Amino acid sequence: MQPIRSWTNHLLMTLVMLLVATAASAADRPNILLIVSDDQGYNDLGQLGNGIITPALDRLAKEGTRLTNFYVAWPACTPSRASLLTGRYPQRNGIYDMIRNEAPDYGHRYTPEEYAVTFERIGGMDEREVILPAVLRPAGYKSGIFGKWDLGALQRMLPTSRGFDDFYGFVNTGIDYFTHERYGVPCMVRNLEPTEADKGTYCTYLFQREALRFLDEHAGNEPFFLYVPFNAPHNSSSLVPTIRSSVQAPDQFKAMYPPVEVETRVTDRYRYGSPATVATPQARRRDYRAAVTCMDAAIGEILDRLEAKQMLDETIVVFFSDNGGSGGADNSPLRGHKAQTWEGGIRVPCLVRWPAGQIPAGVVNDEFLTSLELLPSFAAAAGVEPPPGVVLDGFDWWPTLRGEAESPRKEMFWKRRDQIGARVGQWKWVQMGEQGGLFNLEEDIAEKNDQSQAKPEILAMVKERYANWLREMEAADPRGPFRDF
Description:
The protein is α/β, with parallel strands linked by helices and 485 residues long.
């Protein structure tokens, strides 16, 4: 009997070792939840005291770290999203402007035949670019995206053709929250197939539903990367001025804010055709806040589901806005807004929670960090190497978030058409048409005091660093869709 008992003990020991190894392996591959809002203001977190209601985001700030000096790579949707998924400047990955059509700006509704050959339909990210889910896949990650894609509508450009395993959402820069149309064109897609099955349902609810389904299917079975890019609180994409001039939100969330006396007004100076009946500033502000609060409730449901599965503390949770706020947003104390290279267009709220990774709770971190850091940081946490031969513009930020080291980032550059932003250390040079100047961000976060005349040598230095960056971008391996090669 002794040989049998010995063999049994050996088998049990082997099984225990395998279980320990499996547990260690899982611990080495944390789950990743990346949540991105759309056009949310720098000051639009409840805990900052401006009256907006965001209990889930406030929870993330209380249980994690809030970054105050965090930037995105472009002041509007498409290039910002391409950079956070590639870890590369827009000028390097090829998405350095918007993939959108201009005709709806003049009230034009496309026929299906017209729309099929427009740039918004056929443009997309260069297929040679490697994005986050493809980087994480060798470590066994299942990846899902539910929300706004904005990087190409053709099948070869959709998320499940680029490394994601599961996709439900819309493919362009904005939609009507209920019809899921962009200026009359249906835009919702499941994996590779267009769908109108959920038409009429507020899209934030749909993205919440799909994220929870994904967690129920994968959480605990394999490590996951869950990307939830909401379109809230982006203005609604509609040719109807009363809809387009505000943000759609469910009535129950509007009711959480003080009533608005006058909902609409008639204007003779409407950008998309006059005269027009549009939302008043007060209604737009209320609607914007209601959309944020509805999104926050969806985020709360996702966090609660992870907590119920006892997986929240082992999951990396990162939240930020894709660019600065617009419409009803509050970017204070920053200057400017979305589409501008002032701080209000590129510096955004960011929250990071990961107790198992020793990210401190209730801490405010003022280090200079950007969305370019996401890909190398997630890869480092997952124990995978960045894609070989690909030049990344970010770095592993975990030592900085743990307080073990200062941020390696010393400079960052932005170019939106003829609008320029260049930050080197504490100094920021802005060129916004005839406006701009040199600003000391340590003393002047609101960019009010132009130091160009007082510090010409610093201005020359920052401009030279920008020129060096521009030369590097022009010498990079060319990528479409905008670059001529």
